[in-house]
């Protein structure tokens, strides 16, 4: 099939590449010329595990092309995916300007039947808006489908190639048939393509992300309570997670969720509720708790240094909002580093992938280290913000040698409390007893 993907960020590039991998001819359109030039030169512009292999293979096979020309993209595909940003607007709602302005252009430019597929995360009613805008100018038949994306950064290729489910919101049989044909190679193991109306599909994405953000936040509250009463959140988590109604995943406490999706999607659903005269009380709490959670370690760091962080050097491991990505959008590391800098601390940071992005945000306010160990040199303490695998089993002797004081503030509960005691660290984590 001939496919066009408008917007080649984390979602668009993975969508385009994976659809090419199953034999489709794909053109990806992006407004960012530098990005398009890079991709034309065979360079993957984001860090996403396993994407490079598929990317290279499909470019070589002539199934994956890139352009800055929307007209070229629209002329090519029978199915046009919109993978455009829907960032947070000033009032918390989703900013639909990218989706709607491209839709207007689509209406003006298409001359034969197209299925416009919205993959961006958008509020209920957006498919209707997109349809109305295209219809203002379109001189041919077209359908609009809502097809929210559930991939996770860091596992995006796997998630796209082997999705647990595909949601298709469509009121057109013609479009639904095309979508089922396109996705059939991805559901050969029997996972479902769930067809529903467009509004339900749009809400499915917001409901899923808000539920997951709530699950994390609930555990963060349990962790905070554990600290006050002397319970161990890891034990509580193990006890809870074995209940199949609860499940083991998304029960890990820490310094809050971040990323390009959960924060904005929870806020957008709350705002959409307000617009429909519905007060999402639970989401309001989730937003408040998560915001506080990002700096939950700050008073403890402050207390350790007797409220005098001025001139103290803190090594920071992990800057990305989660492991296996270079994405730093809304990363908890940013909130806590801002607060530490404000208090006069000196920060020596290391992340396997996110340093270029974080340096765009912080510039020379941070010292960027070559390795996880060089970040520790002459540091007064170590702070862990992201649970990259390489941080999980460090050489404790080296840590003690390099750090001025053997102190770890762990926002992701990477280490065993008993090990920390045996090794002689001062170890402060989330929802577990402090080791002094
Ligand atoms: P992104 O910011 O990484 O990428 C968006 C791309 O669109 C950029 O490359 C940008 O240059 C391009 N663009 C902007 N305006 C354009 C235009 N007029 N024409 C062509 N290209 C244009 O965004 P993303 O993370 O891929 O997210 C896209 C959508 O998918 C959002 O709605 C997001 O909420 C949703 N989503 C994201 C994820 C995720 O993990 N990142 C997962 C599921 C859903």
TrEMBL record:
Listed binding positions for substrate are 150-153, 205, 250-254, 258, 322
EC number(s) recorded for this UniProt protein: 1.1.1.22
Q: Where is the signal peptide?
A: none
Q: Where is the UDP-glucose/GDP-mannose dehydrogenase C-terminal domain?
A: 315-417
Q: What class of enzyme is it?
A: oxidoreductase
What keywords does the record list, in alphabetical order? NAD, Oxidoreductase
Q: Name one GO biological process term.
A: polysaccharide biosynthetic process
| Coiled coil spans | none
- What family classification does the UniProt entry report for this protein? Belongs to the UDP-glucose/GDP-mannose dehydrogenase family.
**What's this protein's name?**
UDP-glucose 6-dehydrogenase
């Amino acid at each position: 099939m001939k496919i066009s993907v408008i917007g080649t960020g984390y979602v668009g590039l993975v969508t385009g590449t994976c659809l090419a991998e199953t034999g489709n001819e794909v053109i990806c359109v992006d407004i960012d010329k530098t990005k398009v030039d890079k991709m034309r030169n065979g360079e993957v512009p984001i860090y996403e595990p396993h994407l490079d292999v598929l990317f290279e293979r499909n470019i070589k096979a002539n199934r994956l092309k890139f352009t800055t020309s929307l007209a070229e993209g629209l002329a090519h595909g029978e199915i046009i995916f919109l993978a455009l940003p829907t960032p947070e607007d000033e009032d918390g709602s989703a900013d639909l300007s990218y989706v709607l302005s491209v839709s207007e252009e689509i209406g003006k430019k298409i001359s034969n039947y197209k299925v416009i597929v919205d993959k961006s995360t958008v509020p209920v009613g957006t498919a209707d808006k997109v349809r109305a805008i295209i219809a203002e100018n379109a001189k041919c038949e077209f359908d609009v489908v809502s097809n929210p994306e559930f991939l996770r950064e860091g596992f995006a290729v796997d998630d796209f190639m082997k999705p647990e489910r595909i949601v298709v919101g469509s009121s057109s049989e013609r479009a639904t048939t095309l979508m089922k044909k396109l996705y059939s190679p991805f559901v050969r193991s029997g996972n479902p393509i769930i067809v529903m109306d467009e509004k339900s599909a749009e809400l499915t994405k917001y409901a899923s992300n808000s539920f997951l953000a709530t699950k994390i936040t609930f555990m963060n509250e349990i962790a905070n309570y554990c600290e006050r009463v002397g319970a161990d959140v890891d034990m509580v988590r193990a006890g809870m997670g074995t209940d199949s109604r609860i499940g083991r995943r998304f029960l890990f406490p820490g310094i809050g969720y971040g990323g390009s999706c959960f924060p904005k999607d929870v806020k957008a659903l709350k705002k959409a509720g307000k617009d429909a005269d519905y007060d999402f009380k639970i989401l309001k709490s989730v937003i408040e708790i998560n915001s506080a959670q990002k700096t939950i370690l700050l008073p403890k760091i402050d207390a350790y240094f007797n409220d005098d962080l001025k001139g103290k050097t803190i090594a920071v491991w992990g800057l990305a909002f989660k492991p296996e990505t270079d994405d730093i959008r809304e990363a908890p590391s940013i909130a806590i580093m801002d607060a530490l800098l404000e208090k006069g601390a000196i920060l020596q940071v290391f992340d396997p992938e996110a340093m270029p992005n974080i340096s765009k945000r912080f510039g020379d306010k941070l010292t960027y280290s070559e390795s996880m160990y060089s970040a520790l040199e002459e540091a007064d303490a170590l702070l862990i913000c992201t649970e990259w695998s390489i941080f999980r089993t460090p050489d404790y002797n080296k840590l003690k040698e390099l750090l001025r004081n053997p102190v770890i503030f762990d926002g992701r509960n990477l280490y065993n409390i008993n090990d920390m005691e045996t090794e002689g660290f001062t170890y402060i984590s989330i929802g577990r007893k402090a080791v002094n």
